[in-house]
Sequence to fold (155 residues):
Amino acid sequence: GSYRTPIRITSHLADGPGNEIMIKSITIQTAHLNEILKGINADIPNESCGLIAGKGHSSVKVFPILNILQSPVRYQMDPEKQIRALIEIEDEGLDLLAIYHSPPNGPAVPSPTDIAEAMYPDSVYLIFSPGKKKWISRGFIINREDVREVQIIVK
Fold:
């Protein structure tokens, strides 16, 4: 997507509109992060994407899903694999903790397209972008135009 539109991002807030409690942070297990990064590196020059199942605010399982667009600037998860993953997450009593993607040339912030297409306001959108020596990841709760950054803890 285009990254030219300025996006207001509120960092690390506990209270959302109407004072409901918002997620402040999620924990990604080191093994899960390594699995995600391995897939991201394998998919270069295209965006990689997938789902992260969790319990509470901690990762339990990663579901790498094929980007059927095979594009460096957009992603669309293989719908059949995405549905299978969502059913497995539900069957195992887990939550959809995060949805991740990796724009290889874009910043680690939601693009206007990411915001417009965000359909899971209770899940974190985890965005990976290349840094100088390693991938940078940032997480966001996206609820319509309300974009809030959450802390990513790796353990």
